[in-house]
Amino acid sequence: MRVSRERVARLLDRSRAFDLILRARARARVPVLSVLCYHSVGEPDENYEFDPEVIDVTPAQFRAHLRVLRDHFSVIGVDALCEALRGGKLPPNPVIISFDDGYRSCSEVALPILQEFGFPATFFVATHYTAERRLYWWDKLYYLIKNSPRETLVLKYPQHKEIPLGDHAEAAKQLIAIVKSERGLNLGRFMEAIIEGTGITWSDEVEAGLADKLIMSWDDIRRMHEAGMDIQSHTRSHRVLQTLPMKDLVEELVGARHDIEQELHHRVRTVAYPVGYSISHLPDVRRAVQAAGYEIGFTNASGVNYLWRNSTIDPFDIRRLAIDRDLSMPMFRAQLALPPLGYASDHRGHPEVE
User: Fold this and answer.
1) Closest residue by Cα to residue 66 from 116, 32, 106, 104
2) Where does the NodB homology domain lie (predicted)?
């Protein structure tokens, strides 16, 4: 139970047990890699028109997290991990700071804070939205739901469905579940069906204006890269890989890598899977990821990674620790020092795909 774990975490934190564990781990050089997964840094606002769940931390919380890393960890980038998986050595208590998607808050809020601490971070970017100035599909559907004048959305694709709009979060949850599970979904047609069902007047110009407020441009990303941040792939349009036909899967994987390398003249070696489902049980998807030129794949399955010399760790199934605003500092320290006591969730990364 989360409540009992919280209580245990607070007791251990008060006794400084987590500090002792992390110091001992550093001295013993226990090869445990933690990868933190963020999306956006900001202050929650009830008038926010997009998906509020992607705001993982406030600036104050993010600074508090980085202070823990400064005291006990060695912050590394994905290149160091690539070399370690080939037999290289990692520093004591290695950790990777990662951000998914490409929100503007990454350049405007997260970057200055990272620079305060002198830390690198890895930003996994969904390139279609950056290039085309389009809203991420989940933010777009949240915007449409929140601004709809209707009480019920009558969805006509991929099947007829009536969704009450009184509870915005519940309506969004139902629509997001379709994207995550419907094999072969035409995402463009699906979003058009939502626009029609919500009765919102929509245009490319309206969407581009909203995207400019929410999503980094290539110029923003270039400045991040020049500041020492690493830019890696989050596919092109953030589709759930296991729902795609092979042709689209290859386009998502190869296309994003090409986009980033062309814009930044920078080698792309890793991908964070959209939605974060593990592909360990999907050999065709795994082969496609590897064939696209990636050396490492990151999931959102909760956990740390044990890199023992004789371990059989799958480089395409690297676990991360999901961060959310409700995660207390004792629980944050717990998930780094004493996993799985402090895991924010028990998400194992296996979807139900129709």
Assistant:
1) 116
2) 93-354
In a domain, 348, yes or no: no
Mark the ranges of the chain whose per-residue pLDDT is less than 50: 1, 345-354
One domain for residues 229 and 119: yes
Asked if 124 and 272 count as a contact pair (C-beta separation under 8 A), the reply is: yes
Q: Could you tell me which of 168, 128, 125, 178 has the C-alpha nearest to residue 148? A: 168
Q: What percentage of residues in the chain have a pLDDT greater than 90?
A: 85
The answer as to whether 342 is a domain residue is no
Listing DSSP states for 270-315 in one string gives: EEEPGGG---TT-HHHHHHHHHTT-SEEEEEEE--EE--TT----T
Domain presence at residue 309? yes
Residue-range definition of the domain harbouring residue 208:
134-214
CA atoms of 316 and 276, how far apart (whole Å):
12
What are the start-end ranges of the H helices in 50-99?
A: 59-72, 78-84
Same domain, 259 and 306: yes
Element (H, E) at 262: helix 246-264
- Give buried/exposed letters for 239-267 (b at 16+ CB in 10 A, else e): bbbbbbeeebbebbbbbbbbbbeebbeee
Whose tokens are 């700071």? That residue is 97
Q: Closest Cα partner for 24 from 64, 69, 95, 72? A: 72
Residues 157, 351: Cα–Cα separation, whole Å: 21
The answer to whether residues 31 and 163 belong to one domain is: no
CATH code, domain carrying 227: 3.20.20.370
- How confident is the model at residue 344, as a pLDDT? 52
Number of independent structural domains in the chain: 2
**pTM of the predicted model as reported, rounded to 2 decimal places:** 0.93
Query: For residue 7, which phi and psi values (nearest 5 degrees)?
Result: -65, -45
Question: For residue 209, which phi and psi values (nearest 5 degrees)?
Answer: -65, -40
- Do 6 and 104 belong together in one domain? yes
| Together in a domain, 209 and 220 | no
